[in-house]
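Reading a protein record of the kind used here takes only a little practice. The record below shows the convention in full.

——
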Amino acid sequence: MSAADEPGRGLRVIVDPGVCLGGGQCELICPDVFEVSYVSRVRVEHVDPLHADAVRTAADACPSGAIRILDGDMAKGGGEPRT
């Protein structure tokens, strides 16, 4: 199994700042990836495969639907994001 085939590998998260309410649910669920601040509202780091499940939970818990997940081939530029 190559590194690209590992679960969570290539996972990319996009947060729409125009939709984000700054509620911080994502940061509570996965603080290693999300940070809610006054300046940038939400800052997303590179997603470690160990955090893939928490990132998906955070996206599902987002009250405004501002978090989109690109997984696998979609993270490389093709396909539609998971919301």
Q: What stands out?
A: The two ends are 28 Å apart (CA to CA). The chain is about 20% helix and 20% strand. Residues 72 and 79 are 10 Å apart (CA to CA). The chain has one domain: 3-76.
